[in-house]
Amino acid sequence: MKKVLYVVLAAIFILAVGVTIGWLIRRNVMEQTVSSQNILTALRDRGFLVTQTSIFNESVTISNEDSNFWSRILWGQVIKAYGVVEVNTGVDLAQTQDGDIVISGSKITVSIPKARIFNSRLVGDVSVENKQGILKKIFEKDDGYNQAMAELIKQAEKTASTDEVMKAATENAKKEIERLVGYMAKDKQIEVVFK
Questions:
Q1: Which spans in the chain are helix H?
Q2: Domain residue limits, the chain
């Protein structure tokens, strides 16, 4: 019975020593593998990093009318539209290049592109009011929806391109990159700069 107990204790001791040695080796290897190429690959794998989502309640009026009275009555068109548009802004990390990550001692400098609009989309229904001239109603079955949708998105993107929104997207991107690189390179100072 004592032999079995000694064998079990020896097996537990050997297992504990093996796990401890394996953990130390793995930790040492992990610390040595932080390189600019590893960071570059991790950033590129993220693709486009959306850092600011803005929702705009937009309204537009599109007038396709001529100054001629008869032209307005026969072929004129006025479209009024209302809708909610979502605009996503961020940075394209897929554009990060080899020289954009510099490791010097305990500091990592990451250069990333400036923030830009990624995509825009309508959220929910679009209310379109379309007033058309007599002949336009008969010969052109244009409800004005596509034109109104394009104009709503264009106006929302113009609003999202203001300095205030771009600055917020840029600051959020900086924080997110610092956090992402910080996971890979613990105990290092991370500085994010924009190209």
A1: 2-32, 36-46, 69-75, 134-139, 145-160, 163-184
A2: 2-25+35-194
Q: How confident is the model at residue 137 (pLDDT cuts 50, 70, 90)?
A: low
CA nearest to 115, candidates 164, 161, 170: 170
Is the pLDDT at 180 greater than 90? The verdict is no
Strands 107-112 and 189-194: what pairing? Answer: parallel
- Angle at CA of residue 102, ends 101 and 104, nearest 5°: 150
Cα separations in angstroms, 130 against 21, 77, 80, 83, 135: 75, 7, 6, 15, 14
Do 177 and 110 contact (CB within 8 A), yes or no? yes
Angle 169-170-171 (CA atoms, 0-180°, nearest 5)? 95
| pLDDT exceeds cutoff 60 at 30 | no
| pLDDT per position as a tens digit, 55-98 | 998 888 877 666 665 555 665 677 788 999 999 999 998 888 88
Name the DSSP class of 33. Answer: T
Which residue type occupies 42?
A
The residue among 14, 64, 36 whose CA lies nearest residue 181 is 36
